[in-house]
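If you are new to this repository, start here. Below is one unmodified record pulled from the training split, so you can see the exact layout before writing a loader.
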Amino acid sequence: MRKSELALGAFLVMLVCATSYFIIQSTGRDQAVAANSEIYKQLDLFGEVLERVRLEYVEKPDDSKLIENAINGMLQGLDPHSSYLTPKEFQDMQVQTRGEFGGLGIEVTMEDGIVKVISPIDNTPADRAGVLSGDYITHLDGESIQGLSLNEAVEKMRGPVDSPITLTLVRKGVGAPIQAKIVRDVVRINPVKYSAEGDVGWIKIKTFQSEHTYEYMKQAVDDLKKTIGPNLKGYVIDLRNNPGGLLDQAIAVSDAFLDRGAIVLTKGRNASETQRANAKPGDVTDGKPIVVLINGGSASASEIVAGALKDHKRAEVVGTRSFGKGSVQTMIPLGANGGLRLTTARYYTPSGKSIQATGIEPSYVVEPELPDEMKQQMAAFAPKGEASLRGHLKNDGSPEATGSISYVPKEKEKDVQLKAAIDLLHGLKIETAKKVENAAVPAKPAAVPN
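And here is the target side for that same chain:
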């Protein structure tokens, strides 16, 4: 009798469990159906508004523009870094990422409605044709470019490799316009500048947008080793006003100075999107001391490098707090319809800290010296950063803080932050600096925070 009761009890338990399972399954299905139903209602609303605008707006709107603006509104409502790219914008983004294109090799700006040459890039068609800094470009192949936007003028100057173009230049001190006949060639944008500052190597990484950033940085290190020789004290890696770029380039540059350990941790919405990048053995500087310079214009990929080297105590960080962009954007192609730049993950430094809306705090805080005329316009240089952007992702782990001043003087002799970095490599006390004590770094790479 007892066995029958036990068997009946087990059957009842199984029946209850099975019933619960089906109830849970049914509830989940019902919730999914309800959620889909709500989405369809919202899409019906969108369709109704779109049709009203198309039929009743005061002027006939461009249908494709309406959809494009609606998509942009949806993405911009998520965070400041997600956006839709038209086919043309997506193509331009790919060109920038490759860091090479068919063109002339000049950096230009717009001044009083006229295209002005900032500087020709070394050993490019424009440089070889004698284009100089300060030249004004008035005509392309005999056609005036007055009234064109800077982007439109640049687009006309780019073109297939080996195709010719004639620039009409107006040069200060020269009476007649100059006709410069140039044949377009492959132009590679060099994102790195460097020089020997006595016995210290200064390497300025301007952007991580080019997929050749690591290569140029490595070449800079090799050249400085030869130039300075055995008396080389160390390197200053200048990331000030570097807005970031490609994650893989930030990882490669960080890895160049590290022998082991985590470089960056990325965590997406799903567990499967959690990834850790680790350093491989080998240090391109042979263990020489490093100082990293950052400021309020150092963002994203440049913060990954600064954070990795700081956490591993591989470098001292000098300057002012960085921008605080601790999110990763993925470029998603949409075929002939352009592409999507979508925020897909947050990143964490090796110690497990998110710098989203907080930034990297330097080891030594050194404020730049603003010229007198700029002190009166301090509002233009007021501290800004990720935390000041509307709709930015919140940081649940640390108090938010705005960025810092991003001014960098053109003359190195007036650059107190660079001087402080060089003094630090020489073991000198930095009178203008405020030392920030850092917490010890875990011996093992921290786990990705939950």
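Two things worth knowing about this chain: The CA atoms of residues 23 and 29 lie 10 Å apart. The radius of gyration is 28 Å.
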